[in-house]
Amino acid sequence: MKNINNYSSAYYDALSKEYKNVCNSREKYLESINSIIRKYINLNEPKELLDIGTADGSRLRSILSKIDISINSDCLEPSEKMFFLCKKNELKYNSFKYFNTTVEEFITAKQYDLILALWNILGHAEDPKRFLTKIANLMGKGSYFILDVNNSMNIK
């Protein structure tokens, strides 16, 4: 059996050059989800956010650019090429910290007010139960977890 994390990382490494075009082709769908996320952020004013599978970082920056709340954002991206796309913009967005890892391998003492796993990140988890258990352990009291699984591109 192939390791799904290695497969996913290789897939996103290959997709990295075209990722922006893929996102642009699904702009209406992505923005509809983004607007729901902004409502949660505006209502609950989280201080610590974890974005799992942040890709090139542009989607989270787009979400947060349309709100007036300052949020510390930790971004996890296991694909090395996507991670470097995130890092390329790091100085521009100082409240973002990027980690080249999966959530299952991520080590932190932080508890997050809002955790995002968008565009079917769960479909890339080697062990969905371990993935969700890790997220539960990263959540603080009164936290929110937004999981988007509506991805027509996921064959599974």
Outline the fold blueprint:
Layout: H1 4-15, H2 19-25, H3 27-44, E1 48-52, H4 58-65, E2 72-76, H5 80-88, E3 96-99, E4 112-117, H6 128-138, E5 139-147
Parallel strand pairs: 1-2, 1-4, 2-3, 4-5
Helix pairs in contact: 3-4
Your description of this structure?
With 156 residues, this protein is of the alpha/beta class. It is 42% helix and 19% strand. It contains 6 helices and 5 strands, in the order H-H-H-E-H-E-H-E-E-H-E. It has helices at 4-15, 19-25, 27-44, 58-65, 80-88, 128-138; strands at residues 48-52, 72-76, 96-99, 112-117, 139-147. Strands 3-2-1-4-5 form a 5-stranded parallel beta sheet. Helix 3 packs across helix 4. It is globular, with a radius of gyration of 15 Å.
